[in-house]
Amino acid sequence: MARMADAIVAEGLVKRYGSVVALDGLDLVVPEGTVMGLLGPNGAGKTTTVRVLTTLLEHDEGKATVTGLDVVADAKQLRRRIGLSGQYAAVDENLTGFENLDMVGRLYHLGKKNSRERARELLERFDLVEAADRPVKGYSGGMRRRLDLAGALVAKPAVLFLDEPTTGLDPRSRLGMWDVISELVAGGTTLLLTTQYLEEADRLADKIAVIDHGKVIALGTANELKDQVGGERLELTVGSAQDAASAKAVLTPLAIGDITLDERSHRLTVPVTGGADVLVDGIRRLDAESIKVLDIGLRRPTLDDVFLTLTGHAAGGNGAEEKQGEQEA
Amino acid sequence: MSAFVEALGDGAVVAKRNLIKIKRVPDLIVFSTLSPIMFVLLFAYVFGGSIAIPGMDYREFLMAGIFAQTVVFGSTITGAGLAEDIQKGVIDRFRSLPMARSAVLIGRTTSDLANNVIVIVVMSVTGLIVGWRIHSSPLEALAGFALLLLFAYAVSWGMAIVGLMVRSPEVFNNASFIAIFPLTFIANTFVQESTLPGPLKTFAEWNPVSAVTAAARDLFGNTNPLAPPADVWPLQHPVLMTLIWVVVFLLVFVPLAIRQYRKAVAR
Ligand SMILES: Nc1ncnc2c1ncn2[C@@H]1O[C@H](COP(=O)(O)OP(=O)(O)O)[C@@H](O)[C@H]1O
Ligand SMILES: [Mg+2]
Q1: Which residues in B lie closer than 8 A to residue A107 (C-beta atoms)?
Q2: Distance linking the first and last C-alpha atoms of chain B
Q3: A152 C-alpha vs ligand 2 centroid, how far in Å?
Q4: Cα dist. A132→A84, A92, A116, A119, A299 in Å?
Q5: What interface predicted TM-score (ipTM) does this complex get?
């Protein structure tokens, strides 16, 4: 297979905000026609990366090109070739869906007629025809997101950037958004997607770059990342905090890494190796101490485990926590 | 397409977007006209009796001052609008498009100018109802309105700079009020500057708002035959001085605003 050209190349990007180092020598290569998932917790530097690559922000050190164009020197030319949907839907509340897209088309200089046609086409594609002539004010979160994504596609960009496209959406809208994005990338668009959700990266991205503190700390397909961590996970739930503590002590000899304990649900995750034998062994040990186990099982590592192993802290949280964190950021 | 024509074309698209907002959220225009109407009525009936201007009716004197104050307040919409667009991420979207760097600002200041035109029309009618009269030729009167609007337009580029620096429209509004109240009150807007004490008088004499107010008074024929001649050059040549202020403001504010726009990023 011939090597495809690289759509995005970033080398040693550094961006500082005063004393905060938002990007700390970030390297990233995204081959044409592929989907790269940039996965990291809040404050990891995802948005900053997207802003640098979409010419919104100038970096302090390093070099970045998108479709071969330098993000600083060739910024204006580059803007014709990229589409961006930012972390918050940047749609105008007072305009209708149609007016929003038409305006974007005019600003890409598509001309009056083409802008209108393109707007109608995209409204249809994103299932917004019925709402097309209503002000965006009355749209749901999912509809706004879809409209924002449509705005990014107006000029049929060669490279698309989506910054946390499903953050803040309810589970159903999130599934809808995933479908839309999957369909889009099936058409061969190069996509850089940022997310805090491991499941999202797993589902949408060809390759995942795990980023923390402004650096890529791991890179690979979801499977490769899971293999990197190795072994399996013995997962069990007990009935009380006391049982959880004794279970932890009992299972420590079996663990090949740190045991994590979720205090609220009394759920333990024990990194192990050895397959079903370990499971049996674990159950015997717990039984010997008469610890009541509500639920126990053995599974492959998930991206969550990958994240925990690589960074020492968990990714994402529940929706409400994330929302709060973002407002602080 | 030359860069300038492109900037104007993009600016028109942005202006249209802002004007649609005026149409969809009519409360905005209602409140931005209600407050000047309230001012006209307050000053005409509440203060009018206690502020005596020997030689002329206070209402005649007052109108040019209220016009000046109102259009300067109108120009703050530029800053508040930009601050809101930054907050909502709309500026990020604009900045990711291959449009002219000046277009968002051209569009914003232009639609705010249109807003000021509407406000001036409403205020003129209110003024006429409470007894204000124009004593000059229609051409001079038009020149008076044009000068007020031009002045506000230049000021709105300054508001743009502040609007692009702050994080929210609320912060902008608080900041701009602190600047605008002294500028519009320590002036010849509501009292004759000659009656102000020492340093305030000097401030008022050199205050750009005084120049545009005096210019509008001249052009509307609302001048006081008994008033002593102005002590300083700016108020002796208010029309020329206002034009000078406009040129200076535009020369300074436009490049600074465009620079700030290029750096502005939502957080
Ligand atoms: N405009 C800014 N001023 C100061 N610090 C910032 C600014 N934008 C981002 N940061 C900081 O840079 C780091 C990376 O932020 P960001 O790229 O937004 O992370 P993410 O999108 O992964 O949550 C964070 O520590 C954040 O607080
Ligand atoms: Mg972010």
Answers
A1: 10, 13-14, 94, 97-99, 103
A2: 34
A3: 17
A4: 21, 13, 12, 9, 46
A5: 0.87
